[in-house]
Structure formats: C-alpha cells, structure tokens
Amino acid sequence: MINKKCLLVIDVQNGMFGLPVELYKGKIKLDNIYSLIKKARAGNALIVYMQHYGHKESIFGEGSKGWRIHPKISPSDNDVTIKKKYSDSFLETTLDDVLKNSEINDLVVCGFVTEGCVDTTIRRAFSLGYNVEVAGDCHSTTDNKILTAEQIIKHHNEVFKMFSKVRKSEEIIFKE
Known about the structure:
Elements: E1 4-10, H1 26-42, E2 46-52, E3 80-84, H2 95-101, E4 104-112, H3 114-127, E5 131-140, H4 149-160, E6 165-167
Parallel strand pairs: 1-2, 1-4, 2-3, 4-5, 5-6
Helix pairs in contact: 3-4
C-alpha cells in the first residue's frame, strides 16, 4: 500500500458561524484551515470534506445555508465531500472506503467541534489503523458551562497525542 496523506476537513460549515455561542477564534481557525487546504492542494493530497447534517429544521438541515461548506474553503472538483449524521466521520459513511480505495494511510485532521466530531473521528481513525496528524491550530469549539473553548482545545491537543501527532498547521507537510 502506498503511503499517501489525506486532509480530512470536518464540519467547516456555514452553520458553525451562526451558533448561539460564538466559535472560539472562528475566523482565525478558518484562515488556518484555508492555508492547510492550499498546502494539501499544492502537494496533490486528497482532500475530504465531512459535512454534518441534522434534522430538516436544524441549522445543519440538509440543503440549508447552514449545512453548506463555508465558502472560504469551498471544495474543488477533485475533492471529496461526504455527508455524515454522527460525530464519528466513519460511522455509516463511505469515508473508510474512499481512503482505502485511494491507498491512504495518513490522515491530517482539522475542523469543528473539538470535543465532538473532531475527537471522535481522531480516535476512530487511530483504532482503524490510520496514522493521524492533528493540526492543533485548526480545530475549535465553543465555551461550555465548565470550561472555556481555549481550555477545551488545549486539553484535547494533549489528549490527541495518545492517538496522533499534534502539530501546528505550518509544520504539516503534504507530499506525493
């Protein structure tokens, strides 16, 4: 199996920027993800966008404005977009098949929400045998009643080290 990288962009959708509690450093994280996507494209890496959908009336109702991928990072014709219903990007989706058919071993993960879909997907990818890198400055969340978003992100970057290599986006390299 050829060892290639895939950039996995999780739930970077318009609705994330219209939540009742503001996404921590949302614009900065979006800019970082945009830069990571440019690097992945320059390295001819596969880019897979995971797109969460909820019930029809939710902010992530399929086909709604909130459900669409954020326009700053719109997928190109060569990218793959996969709809998902659960926090686990592999559960009841074609993600594992897409990666295997593309002979991908290495995943670079970024996106939203840190302690939800990002965390669950990282752990599942590790359990499935993928080599995982996390762009530690390319995921975010919101404050909750116990912790600030900044605390959640710092904590999870430490936890992610059990399942992945955590790097700043500028340190991540994509090559053929």
